[in-house]
Automatic annotation (TrEMBL):
The lineage of its organism: Bacteria, Bacillati, Bacillota, Bacilli, Bacillales. It comes from Paenibacillus abyssi. It is found in: Cytoplasm. It holds the Pfam family ADH_N. One of its GO terms (molecular function) is RNA binding. This is Zinc-type alcohol dehydrogenase-like protein. The keyword Nuclease does not apply. SMART domains: PKS_ER. Belongs to the zinc-containing alcohol dehydrogenase family. Quinone oxidoreductase subfamily. GO terms for cellular component: cytoplasm.
Amino acid sequence: MKAVGLHRYLPIEHPESLLDVQVQKPAPQGRDLLVQVKAISVNPVDTKVRSPKERTEASPRILGWDVAGVVEAVGEACSLFKPGDEVFYAGSITRAGGNSEFHLVDERIVGKKPASLDFAEAAALPLTAITAWEGLFDRMGVSQDTTLNQGKSILIIGAAGGVGSIATQIASLAGLTVVGTASRPESVQWAKEHGAAHIINHHEPFVPQLQAIGLTSVDYIFCLNQTDQHWENMAEAIAPQGKICSIVETDTLLNLTLLKNKSVTFVWELMFTRAMYETADMIEQYRLLNKVAEKIDAGELRTTLAKRLEPINAANLRQAHKMLESGKTIGKIVLEHF
């Protein structure tokens, strides 16, 4: 079957950084689904995994952790899906990615594709929706009861990016007042269209900008880029007994003492954790993806697709990686059709 993979970890400008390859079509066993891939999306994790390092792969390493497709076959222990079902999911970082014509994935981390979306629109959502949902509800403990969130606020750093585009929507739907960060006119507009009630610039001190919109602090902060750079600003802006969640690893040690006097909670979110460790609640990703699909079909949430590329091949994936590495992308980049 066709796939896009790598043997060496190279700068994206190198023609061999991603290659068109042929690999054997897998067969499902246990709780695995065999999915015919219709569309894929790219995320910063793809560029991080592909980034230059002194290592080579004897067999092509296949990346890609956003898929929408059709179930072709199921393992003998599957009970949630059947052949012909349309699905969307992010998969597991510990297994081969979805940049291939067919892909194996555990059914417990798969959702039913929103019926109102095409495959490309659906492929834009899984990794970011899982990250946003888990970060908000599982890690920071935001209530899904909107009445309990009245008067509460959240600052989303990087509101126009992939995760930010869906996190602003979910947080707003939960009843929080959403303050997003953006620094360019186009990203400001995108963030406002996707649920941010207010916008501040993440290149400037947070508190004076919050005060200018009538807030002395925020109850929650969801950091979606450059944790190190924003750490002191976050510590100053968070309310006493507030909660901060970040998805971005740090290059330096964080001074947690800055949070002590306010009794602030800091927590990480990595949407691969449940699949990586096969946690007892791994099936929660199946449930949350289905909830997201229901809200999409009800018109309460919308896709964050911003750009389509066709077909799925190495040249287009190199282009998508290069766009992501520019740091200026808005929403999600999706590739469709092999």
